[in-house]
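Please check both lines for our workbook:

___
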Amino acid sequence: MTTIAPTRPRLDWTGIVFAAVLSIAIIFPLLVVGTWAFTEVWRYPNVIPQQFGFRFWGQTLGRPDVWAALTLSLQLSTVVTLLSAAICLPAAYAFARLDFPGRSILFFSFLAGHAFPKFGLLIAIAAIFLQLNLIGTFWGVVLIQLVGTLLFMIWIPVAAFQSVDRRMEEAARDVGAGPFRVFWSVTLPQAGPTIAAAVLLSFVGTFYETEGAWLIGAPGIRTMPVLMISFINNQMVIQFGAVLSVLLWVPSFIALIFARRVIGGGAFARGFGG
C-alpha cells in the first residue's frame, strides 16, 4: 500500500512582496515619527539619534493649548458621534427594512457627499455657514463633521440590519413577542456588534478630521489635528510635531484594542459586505 505525501502549499511570492512593501510604507513613517518624539539630539549624517529623552514631552504637555485642544477634540468627537447615531441609526433601519417612495434616491443622497472632492464640498458649505454666522463656532464644526460620519453611520448599519436573520424575528413574533421585544432580543444582538463598529469608526474619524475643523473652526476652534499642523508649520523644532503625532495615535490604539476585544474583526467585515 502506497502513501501519498501531503503536498506543501505554494507560496504566493507576489502577495508576500506586496505585503512587505505595504508594511514598510506604513510602518517606516510611524517609526521615524516615533523616534523623533523621544529624540533630543539627532544631527545629520548620523543614522540614529545621539541623545534620547523626554524633554520635548515635558515642554509639549506643559502647554495649556495642547490640553485645551485635546479636550475640545474629545468633546467634538463625542457630540458628533452621539448626534450621528441619533439621526442615522433610525434612518439606517428604515432604509434596511422599509419600502417607501424615493428610498434609493434618499439613501444615495446621504452618501453623495463622499462621491465628490471633499474640499470643494467644504468650501460650498463654508459659504452657507458664513451667512448663518456658524464660522468659528463649536456647533459649526459639529455640523461639518457630522457630514463626514454619514458614510459610516448609514452604510454599515444598513448592512447590519439587512444581515439579521428574519426567520428568528418571525419565530419570536409567532410566540407572542411584540415589535420592541423582537427588536431588543433578536435584532439588536445580531446587528449590535456591526453598529458598534460603525460608532467606533465615526468617533475615531471625527477625532482625526482636519479639513472641516480647520476651514469652519478657524481661528477660534483648534482641535488636536489642527494644532499639530500649526506646530509643524510654525515651529522649527520637529519634536513638538512628533510628540503631538504620537499623542494622536493613542485613540486609534485604544479603538483597535476595544474593537479586537469587544466587537471582533468580523463585525467590520459584515458592515462592509464581507
User: Anything to note?
Assistant: The first helix runs from residue 13 to 37. The first strand starts at residue 39 and ends at 41. DSSP finds 13 helices and two strands in the chain. The mean pLDDT is 83.
